[in-house]
Amino acid sequence: MDLLAVTAEPTGEQRLVTIYRSTAVRHLGEHEDHGPLHPSAAAATRAGTALAARLSVPFHFARPDRPDDQAPRWRP
Q: What is the residue range of 28's domain?
């Protein structure tokens, strides 16, 4: 799963990180309950939310229930 920065001006996107299932499980902990989220989605949500808060920008996850790198991009 890729975590992207989507910019409005100039219009574009930049991959910040690729989160793999095995890495997400190690980061989150083997036994952590992430509910219905795929482990890489849970890790991406945690990292993306923290980064967005730090930069004071919105965070949007189009498909948190399953990885989908082709999901439509959200633009304000």
A: 2-55
